[in-house]
Amino acid sequence: MGKIKPAVSAREAALQVIYRVTEEGAYAGLALDEVLKSAGLDGRERALATELAYSAIKAWGTLDWALGLFLRQPLEKLPPWIRCVLRLGATQLLYVPRIPPRAAIYETVELAKKYGHRGTTGLVNGVLRHLDRQKDALPYPDWKTDPAGYLALRYYHPRWLVERWLEEFGYQETEYLCRADNEPPPTIARVNTLKTRKDVLAARLQAEGATVRPARYAPEGLVVEGLGALEASPSFQEGLFYVQDEGSQLVSHALHPDSGAWVIDASAAPGGKTTHLAQLMADRGTILACDVHRGRLDLIAANCRRLGVTCVRTVLVDARELGERYPAAADYLLIDAPCSGLGVLRRRPDARWRKEAPRTRELARLQLAILMGARQALKPGGVLVYSTCTLLPEENQEVVREFLERAGEFRPDSLEPWLPVLPPDLMVTARQGWVQFLPQRHGTDGFFIARIKKLEK
After folding, report:
1. pTM summary value
2. Could you tell me if 41 and 169 lie in one domain?
3. Residue 268, annotated ligand binder?
4. Which of 48, 67, 116, 455 is least surrounded by Cβ atoms within 10 Å, i.e. has the fewest?
5. Which of the residues are catalytic?
6. Count of the separate structural domains present in the chain
7. Cβ neighbours of residue 14 under 8 Å, at least 6 residues apart?
8. Considering the domain boundaries, does residue 4 fall inside one?
9. Strand 378-388 to strand 434-437: parallel, antiparallel, or no bridges (unpaired)?
């Protein structure tokens, strides 16, 4: 029997993902999964489709700018599919140098024939040929006179975000941060100590074909390379680990509940931190895993089953109502707050284009409301950890500062005893009760963690 022909080529699969994300507003990961499921591609072609789609989506703003240089009409005036065909072609010319330009242009023009007409086919051919000739001399803004414009286009970030980071970090640090956002993130397995040991899992993953080394900061973390999708690993299916970045793992260590404690995880889905807390408690005690969406509670329950966690109860509740619902019930309270997600842009190629500048202030109000509403669920002497996966002080330090001013019975508590392996540049603030991990400095996702103690009566 001959090899079954795929339904579409790798490039056409990538084109369909690009269209769904840039024209229909779909999420990149979901769109990619749906397209690949029906494409019938082999492993190599799936990898190419993924690379092309994610590269185009990540560089969306810069691609549209570069293409606009060679168009006689605005890009938005073109038919949507042709816009996406051009984005796909430009991606290959600018960001995938191993693909010969002639092949990139030819294959893209073939797609233009299928998704357009003779006129648009000629337009695609002409624009891409002009771009190929000029790609090493594109007129980026001058970094001295327009640093935000230069960094936004060179490293494909929204201008408003680059401007905000320039205010916060300065030019060099912002450039490093933008570059870090474009690097593939490491894959970190958090060892499930309820079922196995770190050395045993490392050996098991190596036997499955992976390269494994210990993570830098997270005690249960292993950096895993060369295994493809970890979720397909037999070790994963047996519940021996959970895929979780180091920054995220350190949140649970910052809280570090005692075995047998009563814990509330205020915004728990999909359950990474919840199940990690259960590990630290040796699966003894009670964890209330809360969320406002029933479907997300199902994700928590599924992860608990896979990992063998039994001390978790899922609860449908708004975190702002926890104080009324469970007054003075918890020994420990984790608030991993909804946030702008600017610390995890490297994991989500479309996320940078979904953010809006004014939204951060709105989120900060929600974060403070959650803290104020949940605080009374904590017993006197109890511990609260507030965390986000973002980088901006208005969602992090400023929220904590305002909370401490409004809720007088709380004080910062040193993180040093609970996070013993820390980068030197975080030691001072750790003693003050908070740390800000940054992708460009620490190699983790961007995470803010603050530990706060409720005073005894």
Report:
1. 0.92
2. no
3. yes
4. 455
5. 389
6. 4
7. 48, 49, 50, 52, 53, 56, 88
8. no
9. unpaired
